[in-house]
Structure formats: structure tokens, C-alpha cells
Amino acid sequence: MSSSDIVSLDDNSIVINDLPNDTEAAIRYIKTLLPATLNDTFKYPPIVFIHQLKDIIHNETLINKELDILKNQCKIQLLTIGVSDTSSALILYEDYVKYTLNIYPENCCVKKFLNIIIPSIKSFLVEKCILRQQFKLQQYEITELINCGLLLIRNQESYWVSFPSSGSFIKRYNEGRKYIIQIIKRRKFQEILENGLATGQCVPFLSGPRYIFKLLHIIFNYRHRSGFY
Prior knowledge:
Layout: E1 6-9, E2 12-15, H1 22-33, E3 48-49, H2 50-56, H3 60-72, E4 76-79, E5 89-92, H4 93-103, H5 108-121, E6 125-127, H6 128-134, H7 139-147, E7 151-155, E8 158-161, H8 166-186, H9 194-199, H10 210-220, H11 223-226
Antiparallel strand pairs: 1-2, 3-5, 4-5, 6-8, 7-8
Helix pairs in contact: 8-10
């Protein structure tokens, strides 16, 4: 390591390469806004939406560049929330692994997927032929990954990378988003008090899944500049 990679501060050496870039720091900050403890019935991984980063870092080119770096370093797992071929969200790889292994601690297919396949493909899209030829997966193993929620069928020849319970998350997220947007658009000035959104007074049907509720609250804090609706 060259001297340019290290900076001295009060007789201690800090390795520059170990410090997070701006985008990773923003991801970790947004993650701290999410609930720390969740109801077991509605437990999801700490998901960060990419448009949230743009409200913290006002440089989309930098965000895209640093996301590519984080992806190549296998520090994040990109996701698509829905059926789009464009990544719209992400999970820190460490959280992705921890969350998944907490649900499937002894599943050999899951461990192979997390330890070998994900670090190699570095994408949220994967072709079936890659899984079969490069990683030597049998059809029953691919089926197992689908059943575990780690693969979503895109078409007959490819899959989206996902996470367990993603279907429940996407369903509740879309329902809550649609409902809140309808409420805001019915208001005279298309506004709603933050406290009303934060406490659930405006979305009684979402009073159970606190994670989704808190997530929607955080996202709507960025709505004016992020094009949320």
C-alpha cells in the first residue's frame, strides 16, 4: 500500500480505502432511519430506494458511479421493486446475507447462492443458462431458490434476484403508496402533516405492518425532489 492510501491523524493511521464513499455513507444513514425492531409477522431487510440517495447527494452521476463501485465490491445487492428491468432499490450485501441466513440457516442452495453466485454475477438479473452452465445448478436447485424467494421468474430464460418475503413487501409497499398518494391528491393543497403520516392516522389499514408504514413515511419526506408521484 502506498503512502497516498494512508493519512496520519494523531499518531494513528487511517486506511483511506476502508472508508465508505459518499453513496455508501448515504445508504447507511438512510438505513438508520428504518425501524430497529420489527413485528415478526412483517419482518423485512433494510431496503434503501435509489431515489432517496439523490436527495442527500445532489449529483446523479456520482451516485451512479459509486453504486457501480459498491456493486463490483459486492457491498450492495441491487433490486427491482416490481417487474422493471431497472434497479430501483438496494440492500447492503451484509444485511442481505444476514437476513436470508436467518430464515434459511441450513439450506445448502441458499448458501451457495449467497457465497458464490451473488458475488460473481454482481447484478439483479441473471440468465438461466449462466446458472446452469457456469454455476452448474440443477433444475431442482433453481426451483429451491425460487421457492426461497431469492429468484423471481422474469421470463423462461432469466430471473430477477430478490429476497425472502419480497412478494409481501412489494404488495404492501404498493398498496400503501397508492393509498397515501390518493389521500394527498384529495387535499386542497396536496399536502399532509408529517405527524399524520408518521403515526398512521391517515392510513388505518396499514397500522399493522409498522416497517412498511415507517418506510413510506421516510420516502414521502423526499417526495418533492424525487418524483415519487
